[in-house]
Amino acid sequence: MQIVENPSKHKDIDLHPELRKRTDQLMDSMIKEFYETAPFARHLMSSDEINIEYYKRHTIEIILRLRMKRTCDALAIRYFTKKDPIRAKQWSHYADDEMLHDTQFFARDLEKLGVTLDEIYATDPLFTTKLLTGYYQWGLEFEESPLVLITSVYFVEYTTAKTQPSWLDNIEESLGKGKVHGARGHVDLDVNDSHDDFVWSVLASLIKTPEDAQRMLEHMRNIGKLWVAFFVELYHLTADQGKAKPQNIMDTAEALRMAV
Fold this sequence. Notes:
- The protein has a single domain, classed as Heme oxygenase-like (Heme Oxygenase, Chain A).
- By secondary structure, it is an all-alpha fold.
- It is 75% helix and 0% strand.
- The longest helix is centred in the first third of the chain and has 32 residues, at 52-83.
């Protein structure tokens, strides 16, 4: 995929190098804290036996997030058409490339496990999935900026490259060769096309002042908290099956408190 005609011509790729270093260090610390606060997620990386219901619902939520994010990408493009047409074109290409990854990659993996597309789209998203999408929409509507959305996309691109290869190696070892072919294809595309560099260039273009930088870092921390809360909610719904605590909004509130 070629997101921009010539990435080297877009100086924002190299904007704010110290801020990018600080942001990446923040995400590294958040990954470490994630494994401590939502420890069951580590089993995807290291356990000989994958909890299949946990894994299936995790993948379903990826698909549902991608589906809901389409609307947010459209709103981001609308913003850029008014403020920065070059970014509008670039994000349009990126959104076009990501648009059908739910069915092109992840749904195919679930099909091998007996989960149909009808079942996936009939699933009500987890509360934390709705919260994350709502946070994007809050930024777009009330901050009138795609800063939250694109901060989250950078978070996903960065943490995916850091965590998913080892997760997928272990999941495939447990479930069988070819069972994560779609998810691996998605990760390979992100890494090979340097999506993190591209998304940073767009994110950097939104940072004009020190206050913008602090705002972005605040959003990054909030997004990390929501991801921890998601994996806690996922655990109680599937692996724990509601035995340890009632699976309700209080679990999410507790997970957010622990992630602070």
